[in-house]
Amino acid sequence: MKKFLLAVSLGMLALSGCAPTTHSSYPSTFGQPSRARDLLAVIDQPGPVELETIVSADWAVDLSGLVNLDDPKAKAAGMTNHPEPIQIYFYALHHPKFGLYIVDTGVERSARDDKEHQAVKGLVARAMTWDALKVQTALGDYLVKQPSPARGVFLTHLHVDHIDGMPDVPHGTPIIAGPGETTDRAFINMFVVDTTDRALEKQAPVEEWSFTPDPDKRFFGVIDIFGDGSVWALHVPGHTKGSTAYVVRTPHGPVLLVGDTCHTAWGWNNDVEPGGFTAYHDLNKASLAILRKLSKEHPNMEVHLGHQPLPPPPPGAQPVPPPPPPSDLSPMEPSN
After folding, report:
1. Each residue of 213-226: pLDDT tens digit?
2. 3-class secondary structure, 62
3. For the whole model, what pTM was predicted?
4. Which long-range contacts (CB under 8 A, 24 or more apart) does 296-300 make?
5. What are the C-alpha distances in Å from 97 to residues 72, 94, 252?
């Protein structure tokens, strides 16, 4: 009887999946819930934040995970699955008043120097061909050269290739991700939960952005992170439940950090969402359309995708008047 009950329990667990981590989390009070109107009022004004883009590693993964090859545009282009070259990034935000913040974490030093003790190892490392990474700049190598420690880490989402550098983050540093990132249940999490836990081991609990519905119905949620209009968090659910994009106002113009709402240049240029790596395709499509629309309205905005570069905007590009906001956009919750 005990064996039967154990088998039933394991079967139910497999059907329902599990959370991506057992690491603790709680709602964040960081930042101020806002609205599209306030972001759009300042987005094209030069801002105070210096932004660095750091290529942490070169990698290659299946194109079928990066691009939805079943999309009619992908089929028309004759796209087939193959190992696609990509890069892993992290970003450094240097705010003149609030200090250094990191967006995503690249890869840890151990991915290059001590693979036996790295967070990604064993079956997960083999499945991800993680040992084929060519590390360019580990997060720890970058942080040790900074005049002051990072004040916090903002995550686009909790996938391994975006949090692998977390062991290099000083313990106690605030970590903030989107709502549901630590708790959304999925079958695949059964295989990666140990890896995610190792990456977050000894770190502070993950705080979750407290998004509220956008009164202007342009976005699923908007947060003015520092309260001065310099850096904004946008809720873009789909790739994961809590996926978050960031808009950074720099002295050279606005920058959009898309995260994995779009991995590749082809996907962005053709409005095609990611493939097998995405959890909720309809939501991902909606979020990608929202970010693409924002980009088209502000052609002077530099766009950084999840894993491939885009060319910079043409010099002198001018904003275009936005169309009327949709009347039917409302926050959608993924169904488990």
Report:
1. 999 999 999 999 99
2. strand
3. 0.92
4. 296/320, 297/321, 297/322, 298/43, 298/44, 298/254, 300/44, 300/253, 300/254
5. 48, 9, 18
